[in-house]
Amino acid sequence: MPYDPRPVSEGGNAGIGETFSREAPPGKFRLVCVDTFDGGDWVQGDFDTIEAAMAEAKKHNTEMMRIYVYDDTGRCLDGMGTF
After folding, report:
1. Taking the C-alpha atoms of 31, 35, 38 and 43 in order, what is their torsion angle to the nearest 10 degrees?
2. Could you give the CA distance from residue 16 to residue 60 in angstroms, rounded to a whole number?
3. What is the chain's pLDDT, residue by residue, as a tens digit (83 residues)?
4. Which of 57, 58, 68, 74 is the right S-S partner for 23, CB 3.0 to 4.6 Å?
């Protein structure tokens, strides 16, 4: 599918804010991946510690991928990857 950063409700590929939230469950850290080729995004997982979330992020740090770590308030704590 070609790159389309619009929300899924508008026919695009971006699900954040519509099909899932940036906010992790209370006391956890959420890892969100974005495929920069097609604009699709997803929750890779929720983790008990930021260290565990960052270790998982490093495993998925590949070309054409952006990875973000959010806390339980939806605040972005870190990001990595390339466009």
Report:
1. -20
2. 18
3. 567 778 888 888 888 888 899 999 999 999 999 988 888 899 999 999 999 999 999 988 887 889 999 999 999 999 998 76
4. 74
Residue ranges per domain, the chain? Answer: 8-81
Angle CA(40)–CA(26)–CA(30) in degrees, nearest 5?
25
Give burial (CB, 10 Å; 0-12/13-18/19+) of 62.
exposed
